[in-house]
Design a protein that fits this description.
alpha/beta, 39% helix, 20% strand, 21 strands, Aldehyde Dehydrogenase, Chain A, domain 2, globular, seven-stranded mixed β-sheet, Aldehyde Dehydrogenase, Chain A, domain 1, 2 domains
């Protein structure tokens, strides 16, 4: 059986004490085993990182950017291989896997402009003979803890920014689909990045705690569920680290009476059911405004959802594939039953779906639930599967209040032809990312990604200039070069600009 090892300087160092199965979601079988690391593994990675990082940081930004250019080229050359590798462990269809990689690649492209974004600020003559300037310097060693649902994109979001600004980076990917992160580390090395700058350690909670507690790791970025995000943030900050921790989501799509419903239905099907709903930027709640809007939308949604094609990951005609594990499938099914027990209307039931020839695969058909209300636990919690809930709002004010009051504040969308309504909604809704006629409002790479409330812990977002700020420390210098004469100034007084 295939063994997936850590990617650290010097190799694995012997047989792992613990292994974890990596499943094939399409057939339910075990396709590989991944080594789960311990304190000794992490320490070896940290020591290698500490040795390599000073030289990498001292390299001028343009030369580090050239590594990113070469890395970008290698990803593009290996796109098909990476996509098939990703789909085989995650279950998303090939086209979706390529999208996963592409959204990470766009952040790599942003990092190719590194010399510009690393520029400091300078003020000549801020005071009598005094200049003030700033510079951005790397943290030293950073770490990323990434989820199963985007095994390429999120490691690239973190790792490309962290390394390009001069840090060494240790990635702890999900043990459910660890092959692509290891392959990315290999490509970084091939692109010219020194050994020790981008390493991969595998593990579970034990490794997470070791990373959060290690005194040499100065910053940790995390993406996962909200409860674990809060834990990571609390423990990491208590250990004196800089932490950004992105949590769960329950994104709402507000449908105004004037919206183009044909366009909305297409957007909803993609946003709710694409990648089997295993996205933090999925749109699992649709909020039609007014009963008439709700009934018209429902009438169009039903045939569109029933026409969706579920298939194996390599089926080019499939719109989505299996979920990641049998346990996750069972959890989604429990949430569907909970929603029914709580009083919602089960319009389309995706449970019991079987793929011919792949009966043991982790497949779920699309599910549609209507008349979901705010007192239901299924509304308040992230289901993270191919399940769309309809929550009816009587008017615009109620529609704004629903996502604003929800525990999660990751993303939200409004569908309307009314510019005033869109403008008001964007300004007032208490959510971090807003789409206007855009169902999945993930900002482009030169902006930043991040949610509010229990969707994001910490005060900086992923990638863009927020990413640069997170992975660097800003040093401020106040300088005076006297001509040698005594000016009679009082050295005991803090310099002022008067």
């Amino acid at each position: 059986m295939r063994q997936i090892d850590h990617f650290i300087v010097g190799g694995s160092g012997g047989a792992a004490a613990r292994l974890s199965d990596v499943f094939d979601p399409n057939n339910g079988g075990v396709q590989a085993q991944v080594a789960l690391g311990d304190a000794a593994v992490l320490e070896r990675a940290v020591q290698a990182a500490a040795k390599a990082q000073p030289g990498w940081a001292a390299m001028n930004p343009q030369r580090r950017a050239r590594v990113m250019f070469e890395f970008k080229s290698l990803i593009e050359k290996n796109m098909d291989e990476l996509a098939h590798m990703l789909s085989a462990e995650h279950g998303k269809v090939i086209a979706d896997s390529k999208g996963d990689i592409q959204r990470g690649l766009e952040v790599v492209e942003f990092c190719c402009g590194l010399p510009h974004v690393l520029k400091g600020e300078y003020t000549h003559g801020a005071g009598p003979g005094i200049d003030v300037y700033s510079m951005r310097q790397p943290i030293g060693i950073g770490a990323g803890i990434t989820p199963f649902n985007f095994p390429a994109m999120i490691p690239l979001w973190m790792g490309a920014v962290a390394t390009s600004v001069g840090n060494a980076f240790i990635l702890k990917p999900s043990e459910r689909d660890p092959t692509v992160p290891v392959r990315l580390a290999e490509l970084f090395l091939e692109a010219g990045m020194p050994e020790g700058i981008f390493q991969v350690v595998h593990g579970d909670k034990e490794m997470v705690d070791l990373i959060l507690d290690h005194p040499a790791i100065g910053a940790v970025s995390f993406v996962g569920s909200s409860d674990i995000a809060q834990y990571v943030y609390s423990r990491g900050v208590a250990a004196g680290k800089r932490i950004q921790a992105m949590g769960g989501a329950k994104n709402h799509g507000i449908v105004m009476p004037d919206a183009d419903l044909d366009q909305v239905v297409g957007d909803l099907c993609g946003a709710a059911f694409g990648s089997a709903g295993e996205r933090c930027m999925a749109l699992p709640v649709v909020v039609p405004v007014g009963e008439d809007t709700a009934e018209r939308l429902k009438a169009k949604l039903i045939p569109a959802i029933e026409a969706l094609k579920v298939g194996i990951s390599t089926d080019p005609e499939a719109q989505y594939g299996p979920v990641v594990t049998a346990m996750h499938k069972a959890n989604i099914e429990r949430w569907i039953q909970t929603a029914v027990d709580e009083g919602s209307e089960l319009v389309i039931d995706g449970r019991g779906f079987k793929m011919q020839g792949h009966e043991e695969g982790y497949f779920l058909g699309p599910t549609l639930l209507d008349r979901v209300t705010t007192d239901m636990t299924s509304y308040h919690n992230e289901i993270f599967g191919p399940v769309l809930q309809i929550v009816r709002a009587k008017d615009f004010e109620e529609a704004v209040a629903l996502p604003s009051k929800h525990q999660y504040g990751n993303g939200v969308a409004i569908f309307t032809r009314n510019g005033h309504a869109a403008r008001e909604f964007a300004a007032r809704v208490n959510v971090g990312m807003v789409g206007i006629n855009v169902p999945i409002p993930v900002p482009v790479a030169y902006h930043s990604f991040g949610g509010w409330k229990r969707s994001g812990f910490g005060d900086t977002d992923q990638y863009g200039m927020d990413g640069i700020a997170f992975w660097t420390k800003k040093k401020k210098i106040t300088a005076r070069w006297p001509d040698g004469s005594i000016d009679g100034g009082n050295a005991f007084i803090i310099p002022t600009m008067g």
